[in-house]
Backbone:
């Protein structure tokens, strides 16, 4: 800093940054404090927390949804229509990856497995993600349609999970819900823009929604696990989330002058490890390095 | 860098030059249209300008100002492209507040900003140098004056 000393002193007072480095960024960077996957890993390792088998299975589902979605979204980096949108989708992918790390770390506590172990060495039929998140990116409108559905679903789900009887699930949801709220805003903005943009953008938005809508039902499926989780207060009845999901997505579609597509529901099966042809390719790309060089560090 | 501009420090490109902003050279009240500032950056084509032709409707340039804490002022953080203000604000959030930098963002169309011309810095900013009588410390306090 070659400037007058008074200026440096002034900076100390206003920003609290010692030294007042004149070459520092105009804005100040801090890590902030929020629940991190490392904190969960520590508590799992020391035995402070350990999920029940049901809670672990559930965390695995939520973690796998987020992980596969993150992998799909990451593909957009350097390929989005604009640099700024590249960063936006990249940020959303990283948020999802963060949620996946937390959920998988917690789930692994029940089986003494790390997040990396669960992400990189499980086989296709061991993944519990829904079919929606493994659907191909398609064009930008198709990806926005997928984001629209998953973000409104995740927002309602996490909002309710903040009151979960499982304290760790509640804590992860409380952190994730703010991030997913932004994903919701991002996708809704684009649904409105594409739906009311040019004839071509509207055609593509309608096409994207028709491609993705068949996979909505699976998100709200009830099976023996969800019924037990609802009974123990770990999660909320899917029908309650579905009601809000339908209302809020319906509002955005109405504003965009779009309709809920009249398409039959896909059979699903992701929660039982039955996946479409897409997941194998996603896993091959995601896992190749870890499988090729087990335990590698850099 | 001091936000008020320190003449002893060479102009940092990011701090002094706003791409796409109009520049007003010192000494001429009315900018002469046929006189492009030679030291300025390559001018960004205004939308609809004939020379910008091949790209279909490129997104406009916006300048981003971030406030890091309550009570501080907004500081210029950088620029970005966006089709309108709503998206500029969201893009700014994604590009410039990823590491907990801010509690408030302003976005301003770059072409709405009029800047001083870095090439005429001498005339604009160097004349106050050596005029220490413009500072209160130049003067001796008269006896008997309290609380000055």
Residues:
């Amino acid at each position: 800093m070659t400037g007058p000393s008074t200026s440096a002193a002034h900076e100390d007072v206003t920003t609290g940054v010692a030294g007042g480095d004149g070459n520092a960024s105009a804005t100040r960077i801090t890590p902030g404090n929020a629940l991190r996957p490392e904190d969960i890993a520590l508590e799992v390792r020391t035995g402070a927390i350990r999920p029940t088998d049901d809670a672990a299975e559930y965390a695995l589902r939520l973690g796998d949804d987020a992980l596969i979605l993150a992998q799909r979204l990451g593909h957009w980096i350097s390929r989005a229509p604009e640099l700024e949108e590249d960063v936006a989708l990249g940020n959303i992918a990283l948020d999802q990856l963060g949620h996946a790390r937390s959920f998988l770390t917690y789930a692994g506590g029940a089986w003494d497995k790390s997040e990396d172990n669960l992400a990189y060495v499980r086989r296709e039929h061991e993944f519990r993600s829904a079919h929606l998140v493994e659907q191909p990116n398609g064009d930008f409108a198709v990806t926005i349609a997928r984001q629209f559905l998953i973000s409104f679903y995740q927002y309602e789900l996490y909002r309710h999970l903040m009151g979960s009887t499982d304290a760790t699930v509640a804590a992860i949801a409380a952190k994730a819900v703010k991030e997913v709220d932004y994903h919701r805003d991002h996708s809704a903005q684009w649904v409105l823009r594409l739906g009311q943009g040019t004839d071509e953008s509207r055609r593509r938005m309608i096409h994207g929604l028709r491609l993705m809508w068949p996979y909505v039902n699976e998100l709200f499926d009830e099976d023996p696990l969800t019924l037990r989780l609802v009974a123990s207060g770990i999660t909320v009845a899917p029908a309650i989330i579905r009601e809000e999901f339908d209302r809020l997505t319906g509002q955005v579609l109405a504003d965009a002058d779009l309709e809920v597509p009249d398409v039959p529901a896909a059979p699903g099966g992701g929660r039982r490890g039955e996946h479409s042809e897409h997941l194998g390719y996603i896993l091959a790309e995601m896992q190749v390095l870890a499988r090729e060089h087990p335990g590698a560090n850099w | 860098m001091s936000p008020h501009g320190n003449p002893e420090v060479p102009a940092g490109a990011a701090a002094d030059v706003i791409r796409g902003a109009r520049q007003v050279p010192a000494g001429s009240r009315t900018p002469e249209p046929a006189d492009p500032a030679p030291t300025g950056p390559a001018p960004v084509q205004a939308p609809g300008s004939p020379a910008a032709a091949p790209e279909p409707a490129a997104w406009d340039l916006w300048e981003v100002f971030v406030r890091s804490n309550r009570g501080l002022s907004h500081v210029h953080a950088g620029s970005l492209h966006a089709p309108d203000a709503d998206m500029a604000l969201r893009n700014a959030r994604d590009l410039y507040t990823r590491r907990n930098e801010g509690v408030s963002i302003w976005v301003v169309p770059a072409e709405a900003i009029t800047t001083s011309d870095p090439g005429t810095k001498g005339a604009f900013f160097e004349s106050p140098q050596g005029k220490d009588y413009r500072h209160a410390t130049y003067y001796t306090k008269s006896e008997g004056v309290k609380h000055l």
Remarks:
- The interface with chain B takes residues 2-4, 7, 14-15, 22, 25-32, 82-85, 87-88, 91, 182, 185-186, 189 of chain A (CB under 8 Å).
- Confidence is low (pLDDT under 50) at residues 1-23 of chain A.
